[in-house]
Amino acid sequence: MNMELSRRQFLAATGAGVAGTALGAFGFGEIEAAHAQAIRAFKLVNTTETRNTCPYCSVACGIIMYSKGDLKKGEKAEIVHIEGDTDHPTNRGTLCPKGAALLDFVKAETRLKYPMVRKPGSDKFERVSWNDALDRIARLMKDDRDGNFVQKNNDGVTVNRWTTTGFLAASATTNETAFATYKVVRSAGMLVFDNQARV
Amino acid sequence: MFPPVPNPTTQPVPPKFGDKDLIRRSASTVTPPAQRQTEVAKLIDVSKCIGCKACQSACIEWNDTHPEIGINTGVYDNPHDLTPDMFTLMRFTEWENPETNNLEWLIRKDGCMHCEDPGCLKACPAPGAIVQYSNGIVDFIHENCIGCGYCIKGCPFNIPRISQVTHTAYKCTLCSDRIAVGQGPACAKACPTQAIVFGTKDEMKEHAAGRITDLKSRGFANAGLYDPPGVGGTHVMYVLHHADKPEIYAGLPNNPRISPIVEAWKGVTKYAGLAVIGFAAAAGFMHYLVAGPNRVSEEDEENAEKLTGEEPRQ
Amino acid sequence: MTNSWTDIRNTDLVVIMGGNAAEAHPCGFKWVTEAKANRGAKLIVVDPRFTRSASVADFYAPIRQGSDIAFLLGVMNHCITNDKVQWDYVKAFTNAAFIVKDGFEYKDGLFTGYDETKRDYDKSTWNYAIGDDGYAVVDDTLTNPRCVWNLLKAHISIYTPEMVERICGTPKEKFLKVAEMISECSTPTKTMTSMYALGWTQHSKGSQNIRSMAMLQLILGNIGVRGGGMNALRGHSNIQGLTDVGLMSNLLPGYMTLPNEKEVDFDTYMSTRGFKPLRPNQMSYWQNYRKFFVSFLKSMWGPAATPENHFAYDWLPKLDVPGYDVLRAFELMNQGKMTGYICQGFNPLLAAPNRTKLTASLSKLKFLVTMDPLDTETSRFWENHGEFNDVDSSQIQTEVYQLPSTCFAEDEGSLTNSGRWLQWHWPGGTAPGEAKTDNWIMAQIYTRLRDLYRKEGGAFPDPIVNLDWSYADPGEPTAEELAKELNGKALAPVMDPTDPTKVVVEAGKLVPSFAALRDDGSTTSGCWIYSGCFNENGNNMARRDTSDPDETGAYLKWAFSWPVNRRILYNRASADLNGKAWDPSRKLIEWDGQKWSGYDVPDIAPTAKPQDVGPFIMNAEGVSRLFVVGMMRDGPFPSHYEPFESPVTNLIAPRIRGNPVARVFKGDFAQFAEPASQEFPYAATSYRLTEHFHYWTKHVWVNAVLQPEFFVEISEELAKEKGIVKGGWVRVWSKRGSIKAKAVVTKRIKPLICDGKPVHVVGIPLHWGFTGAAKKGFGPNSLTPFVGDANIETPEYKAFLVNIEPIAGPVA
């Protein structure tokens, strides 16, 4: 009697539970089959790579995003894995505990998907279309600007400022977004303007 | 800088090792390959580790596990222990060095050591649930696992954990799927300070020697490599600043070896065989040994703890 | 950063003080471990807590938060007293020899000209003596008692090791060990790097903390050299870029400044900006200001900016106060003086101080708009979350729009890291739901507002309707279009100033760099310091060549570094007066008799002779400033001031509370605890943990696993005194708010003995709120005071007072 099979048989007899294994097949065929599954298939095969920069701290580590589907080909792309880019001079492929979990940021439950409005006094957000939200925001801004814009100060100096609506810029938007934002904010005459450099 | 782990390929690559490279298979005999693959190893330099848990993070992401969100219990260790969904864990120890009176914050990445002489595999009664490749990787094959928990008893480092969902045992695979395509483990790739590096076992020993020289020059006279001979050496090794006292690193065993209980079971199967001792006798012995944690005597637990040097954990 | 992350490999000594690089910047910290492993470099950590940076340090010294200036001036005093000074560097490259105007003095913690009612100085004596030739007077022998060097020596002489111990709580022998290790870097062949972050900035004297170290680095000859520098680690991925592009109330792009209302016209504005050289032959680079300013105005208003209307100078808003920073914004809101607020990727309800005041302020707005990829607390400030956000929604009349934006993975463009590298990234994923790019959202708001003004008219529509918005799709400018705009282009042929027949840049072409910008309206450039980022050679920010000759860490062909791809600022100072490297093994640029060349882009005119032109060309003196003229509100030298909330009184100037010129709004002073308060006896500080990034990663499952729940950290001694157990619940409260937390009781925090009395430190990490995957919790901003740095208004998050007690935990 083969020792290995005895052990297996024994375990079945003692009721320790041989979940799902084919006890009937006493040959070695099943062992070969099991071997073939031993090592998990490499999960990045045939994914699309895209280079990006970690959005957290200012070390700016290089990352590679692996997706199913290719945006460049006009396809929908679902990111399935993110890891450090070894070609990057600073991080050499390494990532910190935040960077290494970026996939879960992209797919966070609390990612926002739709514009929402909370009406005065309400205790809930409600869906709103982009169009309605943006029209309303532009209207609120214009009404306030028209009402409170200061063209000249008390000394008659042209000051062209608007200080009753403010803008807080981010810390992780691109430089290009930053410049577009700068143009919009400054051309409106806004002075209450800051970013997240201090906190 | 130690050569960083290369970027993954997205092209299909034939695996660099597989069935033909098995040198051990639980509860089975295998024909060892004619030529052993170069042994690989992961080296964890505790003196360079900043306890950032990038290894934990990368491990979760790569292995697609989903550990529970726990609570704070007054320490930085999270999760609080290895789990079926957390194959590696930073263990933090605040140690006041009696010689210098300085505080040292010892941070050790815990996880499977991939022993050359793997106690888990030897204890495992399920054919093919645990395998060892000739490059040194000890891997669990979940399809074959019966969830008996023997591997935990057999492990001198108290590493494997049984899932209450799938009723099978889990631990670090050394990212066998990555290594099979010429990659390094996810934790080694992520580690910001290269406190974790990966290569052949010889390279790792050589790299460790350089690190130990540096540590000695900085006043750590007992710096050394942890590659415990009691388990035939390991394929995950540590550089420790105080290699004379591994136990201060959250109870790293001073001289780990496979529990005599496991060796006895191994002995029974290997040398006696059912034809000699009789099926009933074997059944009795196994029942005593296997039937689950609840039925293992306290004495056995204590023995196991003594042997592994582990404190019981919450 | 003056240097870059990869340059840290070249250092001999790393000082982490005012930061915690191993935790907050782990992959940058790699280069510290590399320097240690390859050069035998040493690491010193000075911090109130034994951090994870300290866990791998060669030497750790504790310090009471808010006392860094005393410590650093103490080190400086030690260096000078023990002749540990790089004399050739100090004499040639700093203003040590400059004579200070008569009348300037320092007494009882104050400099000349203090006005207590204005909380401000008359700075007129804080200047150099100017000779008959119009240049600053210098004494190269450093013997004149009024020269900067001798004034400095006198100013810091009070900071003895004994005084440092009394103020900082750093044991004298530990302080001396640090001072000795640092002083060794005064030789030309040994270099120290300073790595700091918000541990220095978030104080009411944050700017002077940094200045103190910068001065020390100058005395040691460590600025402009490989492995040296002042390296602000910076917190967020593009906060360097957002600041470079000028998204602050008083800034224009490229560190130009917005006019104030006294600058009634273009010429008045320009009269104070083109700094005239203060020494013969010196280059003063800001003399090009007009070119950069006009090119910026042309980027804003294109053809509508003409020489006749002074390039639309009047269309820029003029300031009536120094700045409308986030603190002033909330103060105005709280006074009911604001209508609307738009938050783009910023979560001020958790990020700004004194949360009670923030909630009250937001509740007074008519409208609030948030744009964010994540569900922020700010966007839900009106929603009741039990004790975590205890508000009555029905009483809050603010109309709130929560707009979903894309995240990095779905977005294209460049980010500027702390080493000033602009790196391009590409989108790789489809955005969820209806999330839109920030460019799209801003363009949609702008075009709607513009169209309303076109249709209806209204208050001064000119700057809005004339804004140059000539993008292919006005509804969504592309990143590439905007990057080219930042770089700048020629509107007419740009001629060579030395040869008016030679065209340097043809009309319509992108300018190669800011050297091609002109002040006649013939060029545009959105942000002059970014010029060169996207020129006719292509998108230089997207470059990925990793070559690095002789492994200096420069990586000149990787991405683009501002200005003009320079990797180490002030790099001319890496060479001696004759242009030879101070340290031949760390050559950076050298003078070959005709020109400067080497591993980096020279930070000086390539043909400027070494003896003629000083290395600090952005300063009118050409040298660096141990004594600063005009720019710092709180003194030309740093001086020790206590935090506004301090467990002790100021030992060297007992009458002074906090920083004497820091801005404090009416009402906020009453909300500060008294110095050495019995009611709030413990010194609290806030910080990040390595497992989290700010308020983002509590939304990330994995990071919530790694550090799930809000806690505070205290010493075993304080725990014993208060009966607090490890893992138990505590209440922590300040004069402004109260929070509940788990207690981490640790040997890593020890009571500090300051002037004979123990000071207990309470550490409060900042990553929790009421949205996301992690357990709901509080943040330090429920407790912190509403006051900022005297110069730039960074809130005093790092030093404030609290009390603590054990409490029963919530019923499960």
Structural account:
- The complex is a heterotrimer of chains A (199), B (314) and C (812).
- Chain A folds into four domains: 3-36, no CATH class; 48-106, N-terminal domain of TfIIb, CATH 2.20.25; 113-147, no CATH class; 149-199, no CATH class.
- Helix content of chain A is 28%, strand content 19%.
- Chain A contains five helices and nine strands, in the order H-H-E-E-E-H-E-E-H-E-E-E-H-E.
- Chain A is elongated.
- The relative contact order of chain A is 0.07.
- Chain B is α+β, with helices and mostly antiparallel strands and 314 residues long.
- Chain B has two domains: 19-258, Alpha-Beta Plaits (2-Layer Sandwich), CATH 3.30.70; 260-304, no CATH class.
- Chain B is built from ten helices and eleven strands.
- Chain B has helices at residues 54-63, 119-123, 150-154, 176-179, 186-190, 201-217, 260-272, 274-277, 279-290, 298-308, and strands at residues 22-25, 40-45, 88-96, 103-111, 130-133, 138-140, 161-162, 169-170, 196-200, 224-226, 236-240.
- In chain B, the strands form four sheets. In chain B, strands 9-2-11-10 form a four-stranded mixed β-sheet. Chain B has a three-stranded antiparallel β-sheet with strand order 1-5-6, with no helix packed on it.
- In chain B, strand 3 and strand 4 (103-111) form a beta hairpin.
- The radius of gyration of chain B is 20 Å and the shape is globular.
- The model of chain B is unreliable at 270-301 and 303-314 (pLDDT under 50).
- Chain C is α/β, with parallel strands linked by helices and 812 residues long.
- The relative contact order of chain C is 0.14.
- Chain C has 20 helices and 31 strands.
- Helix content of chain C is 22%, strand content 15%.
- In chain C, strand 26 and strand 27 form a beta hairpin.
- In chain C, the strands form eleven sheets. Chain C has a six-stranded mixed β-sheet with strand order 25-27-26-31-24-30. In chain C, strands 3-2-1-8-9 form a five-stranded parallel β-sheet, sandwiched between helices. Chain C has a three-stranded parallel β-sheet with strand order 12-13-14, with no helix packed on it.
- The mean pLDDT of chain C is 97.
- Among the domains of chain C are: 5-232, Dimethylsulfoxide Reductase, domain 2, CATH 3.40.228; 669-807, Barwin-like endoglucanases.
- In chain C, helix 13 crosses helix 15 (355-363).
